[in-house]
């Protein structure tokens, strides 16, 4: 076979191989094999040495033409394969933007936070400030300043988590009031504050006890504050939380930090006072403790009890939420089971 025929055949074979190549690797192999230094075209060009001189240019230019054609066919096929590959990838990764999205579960404040928020809103509206304080507290602020000296029997009333002899987990939020009272400048006006937050007691957890629960305590100090101011304030609180028709009653009690002290009952929100299971057939539900700030507490904060006086109260949001929503185990609030928590949706 002469060189020209050889080249013709090589061209036919290569073009058909290129045409049927199904991936770019195969194309590359063909390129290396056919056009490479050890390939048949190079061989033909080398063989031209043995040709008569007048045939060389003809065969040479034919060989070049064949090489160019094969090279072009390779480029074209490679482009085709690249385009097909991209199209395939796009097809596989296709996103249907019209499909409905995956719904995002919307959260909400914890039910205790909802109760505390409501109390905060009410008192902010009455000109009180909401004050935060440390949960790890000094004995001095938690007990001493609240008229509970070291040997006071009332210290036994609450079992305490002590960290050192003088540092403890606060058992009430009153130390926040003690700290604020100590700093307050009465030339700027009366002190009106509430302090919501977590408190700690060394209780064994059961349906009605939790070693950590919440309190909101209130304190007002000014000249000429009376128990009538206290009663009016608590009446507003009871109506705001349990309904406009609610009434309150006060029974004498004892707290070391108030004198006189009172337990405060709210008329039953379930039966309106007639008697039912919620109020244990009494018509009243015990909800708050309160009283007039003890002169010793004022003195210890550097306030003259001859000039200033005030009232204080304390309530438990956990107990409020249990009553309001009929929850019979306080531990539910702290398990963070979404099935429990999502029942208190504010969406209506
Ligand atoms: C200062 C002076 C007095 C806060 C008060 C109560 C009565 C009370 C409890 C009710 C249920 C807390 O959630 S509870 O466990 N509290 O009965 N607390 S008077 O008296 C203060 C506070 C601060 C400086």
TrEMBL record:
Note on how the cofactor is bound: Binds 2 magnesium ions per tetramer.
SUPFAM superfamilies found in the cross-reference section: Class II aaRS and biotin synthetases, tRNA-binding arm
Family the UniProt entry places it in: Belongs to the class-II aminoacyl-tRNA synthetase family. Phe-tRNA synthetase alpha subunit type 1 subfamily.
Protein keywords: Aminoacyl-tRNA synthetase, ATP-binding, Cytoplasm, Ligase, Magnesium, Metal-binding, Nucleotide-binding, Protein biosynthesis
GO molecular function per UniProt: ATP binding; catalytic activity, acting on a protein; magnesium ion binding; phenylalanine-tRNA ligase activity; transferase activity; tRNA binding
PROSITE patterns per the UniProt record, alphabetical: AA_TRNA_LIGASE_II
Known cofactor(s): Mg(2+)
Location(s) in or outside the cell: Cytoplasm
Pfam families: Phe_tRNA-synt_N, tRNA-synt_2d
Name of the featured protein: Phenylalanine--tRNA ligase alpha subunit
Subunit text: Tetramer of two alpha and two beta subunits.
């Amino acid at each position: 076979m002469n060189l020209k025929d050889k080249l013709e055949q090589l061209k036919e074979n290569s073009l058909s191989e290129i045409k049927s190549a199904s991936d770019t690797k195969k194309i590359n192999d063909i390129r290396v094999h056919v056009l490479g230094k050890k390939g048949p075209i190079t061989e033909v060009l080398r063989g031209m040495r043995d040709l008569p001189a007048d045939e060389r240019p003809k065969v040479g230019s034919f060989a070049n033409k064949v090489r160019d054609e094969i090279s072009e066919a390779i480029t074209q096929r490679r482009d085709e394969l690249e385009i097909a590959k991209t199209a395939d990838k796009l097809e596989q990764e296709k996103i249907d933007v019209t499909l409905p999205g995956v719904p995002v579960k919307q959260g909400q404040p914890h039910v205790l936070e909802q109760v505390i928020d409501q109390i905060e809103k009410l008192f902010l509206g009455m000109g009180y400030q909401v004050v935060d304080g440390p949960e790890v507290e000094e004995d001095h602020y938690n007990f001493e300043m609240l008229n509970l000296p070291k040997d006071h029997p009332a210290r036994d009333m609450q079992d305490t988590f002590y960290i050192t002899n003088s540092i403890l987990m606060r058992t009430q939020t009153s130390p926040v009031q003690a700290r604020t009272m100590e700093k307050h400048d009465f030339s700027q006006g009366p002190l009106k504050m509430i302090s919501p937050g977590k408190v700690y007691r060394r209780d064994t957890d059961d349906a009605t006890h939790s070693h950590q629960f919440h309190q909101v305590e209130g304190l007002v100090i000014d000249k000429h504050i009376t128990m009538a101011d206290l009663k009016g304030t608590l009446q507003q609180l009871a109506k705001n939380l349990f309904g406009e028709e609610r009434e309150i009653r006060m029974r004498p009690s004892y707290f070391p930090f108030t004198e006189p002290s009172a337990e405060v009952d709210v008329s039953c929100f379930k039966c309106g006072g007639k008697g039912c299971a919620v109020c244990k057939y009494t018509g009243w539900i015990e909800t708050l403790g309160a009283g007039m700030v003890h002169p010793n507490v004022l003195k210890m904060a550097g306030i003259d009890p001859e000039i200033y006086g005030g009232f204080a109260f304390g309530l438990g949001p956990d107990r409020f939420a249990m009553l309001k929503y009929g929850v019979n185990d306080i531990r539910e609030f702290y398990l963070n089971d979404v099935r429990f928590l999502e029942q208190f949706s504010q969406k209506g």
